[in-house]
Amino acid sequence: MPFDLVIHNGTIVTVNPEFEIIENGIICIKKDKITRVAAVADDRPPPQAKEIIDAGGGIIMPGLVNTHTHLPMTLFRGLADDLPLDTWLNETIFPAESTHINSESVRWGTLLACAEMIISGTTTCCDGYFLEGDVALAVNDFGMRAVLGQGVIDYPAPGVPDPAANVETAKAYVVEWKDISSKIMPSIFCHTPYTCSEETLTKAKSVSQELGALFQIHAAETKDERNRFLSEYQMTPIDYLDKLGILDQNTLLVHCIWLNKADIEIIAARQSKVSHNPESNMKLASGISPLSRLVNYGIPIGLGTDGCASNNNLDLFQEMDMAAKLHKASTLDPTVMDARTVLKMTTIDAARAIGLDDVIGSLEPGKQADIVIVDTNQPHLVPMYHPESHIVYAAKGSDVRDVMVAGNILVRDGKLLTVDLDAIIDRVNEIASNIRV
Ligand SMILES: [Zn+2]
Q1: CATH value at residue 52
Q2: Ligand 1 midpoint to CA 254 (Å)
Q3: pLDDT tens digits, one per residue of 182-229
Q4: Is CB count within 10 Å lower at the N or C end of the chain?
Q5: Does the model's pTM come out above 0.70?
Q6: Are residue 374 and residue 339 in the same domain, yes or no?
Q7: Do both 48 and 94 map to the same domain?
Q8: How far is the CA of 128 from the centre of ligand 1 (A)?
Q9: What's the 289 CA to ligand 1 centre distance in angstroms?
Q10: Model pLDDT for residues 306-322, shown as the tens digit of each residue
Q11: Residue 432 belongs to some domain of the structure
Q12: Which residues contact residue 130 at a Cβ distance below 8 angstroms, ignoring those fewer than 6 apart?
């Protein structure tokens, strides 16, 4: 049999460099890789394969990439809303984490996050949390692709009671997970420039450089953070990180809201990447990132949902819609953040932001078969003039019909095939009943 899997009878949104859209297209897969992407004549039967999927005239697109999450925080979904970031963190989230986050709760919170992401079309995520070895075990068992960052912070944290051991713990985790699975890329996640000391930041960066791991950090998220750095160091947070040597092409800066022109020029010059999380930024009233200016500087940007406690879901379709509209409204310019630009921020540009653009992010021969089929035979998706417009402005995560990662079908007809979703929901509800008390 020439192919293991063939997908046909759909409109392929390739997100290749030409942004080719192929009506009545066909995708052939051998093992974990895409081997052919082409248009087929109506009268020709699909090539032979062990399995053939009829896309039913829907959209066939790359699996979505979420560039910033805190997976186990699904456990805190809706626990504390409508609060400023510092109150939300210090009075609710940090206390809840210190009491309720352990290996067991991390595993079930992560499995719930994976279930939510995969059924809504996200095949890869970039995470930062504590007990990340347990996160990695759960994501690996689930079969998703992920960059997973062990959290580093100068306070006692779940799994790291002594902050003096924070960087060593992260290093040991990256070393352990480096070659375990081709789908799991271990990383280091420093919490913020103000919850990690200068020494912690530089040590963590040098470990990430030594091991070739992505370095992630929340940065320039709030006005308070910027003012604090200006008054303490007479520098912006971005300038401060740059002076410490943190910024390079393997650094992912999350949020980047409070930036001046010099900050944007530094990020562009260092070839650092940015994760933009519009729903979290809006919900915590952190502000609006100057995204169209970052785009104009050619900075690779991926969208992220942030954790479930500040969003409160992991649906990237919703995030795309929000990102496109937020920046039009804030700049009074309907031409910014057009559908193609936004779709690239959850596919190829998101993959670039986390260092995986050679592997995923578009449907092209040689790439991994991380593929989503969207059911467009629904009232809110008819008619279809431009598929990318439907993806960004009209579709929802619940319109996703089939999902595969590395050629493995994880979702078919909207149902998870490889895990017991009821068992995950029951276990998370059980854990949540203690958090609520
Ligand atoms: Zn975050």
Answers
A1: 2.30.40.10
A2: 7
A3: 999 999 999 999 999 999 999 999 999 999 999 999 999 999 999 999
A4: C
A5: yes
A6: no
A7: no
A8: 8
A9: 15
A10: 999 889 999 999 999 99
A11: no
A12: 97, 101, 106, 150, 151, 157, 158, 159, 160
